[in-house]
Amino acid sequence: MSIERFLNQTVSPWMNAEGPESDIILTSRIRLARNLKNFMFPTLGTQEEAKKVLDKFKQMIPLINLYPLKDAELLMMEELQPLHKQVLVEKHLISPNLAEQSPQGACLLSQDEVISIMVNEEDHIRIQCIFSGLQLEEALNLANAVDDQLEQHLDYAFSEVRGYLTSCPTNVGTGLRASVMMHLPGLVMTQQMKQLIPSINQLGFVVRGIYGEGSEALGNIFQISNQITLGKSEQDIILDLKNVVEQIVQQERSARESIVKTAGIQLEDKVWRSLGILKNSRIIESKEAAKCLSDVRLGIDIGYIENISRNILNELMILTQPGFLQQYAGGPLRPFERDVRRATLIRERLLLENNS
């Protein structure tokens, strides 16, 4: 295994699986933040301390006895080109923060890309597990299994009163950040999403774009995650998030049914026009591509389109990002060149789907 495998495999295996509620919920993610005792947090520590943390982590890797991490690959940020790091960010395998961090940053990736352990990000250790569809409990169980393995060999910074100590106060306690990535075109089209976001925030959850904090909700894809980690158990956090997500799923289904009933022909026209744009465009910007892909995925989900797999939309959402386009081109591309290559790639991929 090598970095080329992670770069050239367009969609992580967990994005191809059909998890529960996968027509609306793309992925469930669990992230655990941990720091080592007697070391400064990465946000305040020196490069020398960061190197010691990384060395401790490297020494521990051969001692890990967990099958999902068998043959896992350690990727050193200082050894990766900026474009390679951008691709890993676009695949949600590392955070933008880690990509921009010091040379002492690293990431241990499992072969199936379900587990990602980031080192020297905002915290010393960040364990991430991603599953398809609504599988928060499954992702938490795996993350806890990884955490247990690491804690056998690493001395965590922990307080009996406050729980796990983290760089950001909002992560103190369980150190758990749970999130789901949802495709919500119905709620956006019916203008309900604008009203829903403040209500979700009031319940202690946050709504972000496709790449987390500060990112845009391209293609009607939103991330819903918990804000509170202190004073609540992991199970309570998961249960509360799951309850909120299930309500959003019901509202999205109702919104889709309403649109089909009240604007069926207009919606059908919108879906097929978007598919026509994707099949025939010679130049397409990322925002327009994301919008059209969202429309086509909705058309697949409600039965307008039957000869295209839903998974291809997952694939194209990643494949048409700037980093991936340049990776496949073999080097940097100007914005206009990316728009041309994006259109070509989408046409060729849809043609391949129709011929399969």
From TrEMBL:
Keywords: Allosteric enzyme, ATP-binding, Kinase, Nucleotide-binding, Transferase. Gene3D superfamilies: Glutamine synthetase/guanido kinase, catalytic domain. Coiled coil: none annotated. It holds the Pfam family ATP-gua_Ptrans. Its EC number is 2.7.14.1. The keyword Nucleotide-binding applies. It catalyses: L-arginyl-[protein] + ATP = N(omega)-phospho-L-arginyl-[protein] + ADP + H(+). A motif (RDXXRA motif of the pArg binding pocket involved in allosteric regulation) lies at residues 338-343. Residues 24-255 form the Phosphagen kinase C-terminal domain. GO terms for molecular function: protein arginine kinase activity. The keyword Transit peptide does not apply. Appears to be allosterically activated by the binding of pArg-containing polypeptides to the pArg-binding pocket localized in the C-terminal domain of McsB. It is an enzyme of class 2 (transferase). ATP binds at residues 27-31, 92, 126, 177-181, 208-213. Belongs to the ATP:guanido phosphotransferase family. Catalyzes the specific phosphorylation of arginine residues in a large number of proteins. Is part of the bacterial stress response system. Protein arginine phosphorylation has a physiologically important role and is involved in the regulation of many critical cellular processes, such as protein homeostasis, motility, competence, and stringent and stress responses, by regulating gene expression and protein activity. This is Protein-arginine kinase. It comes from Pallidibacillus pasinlerensis.
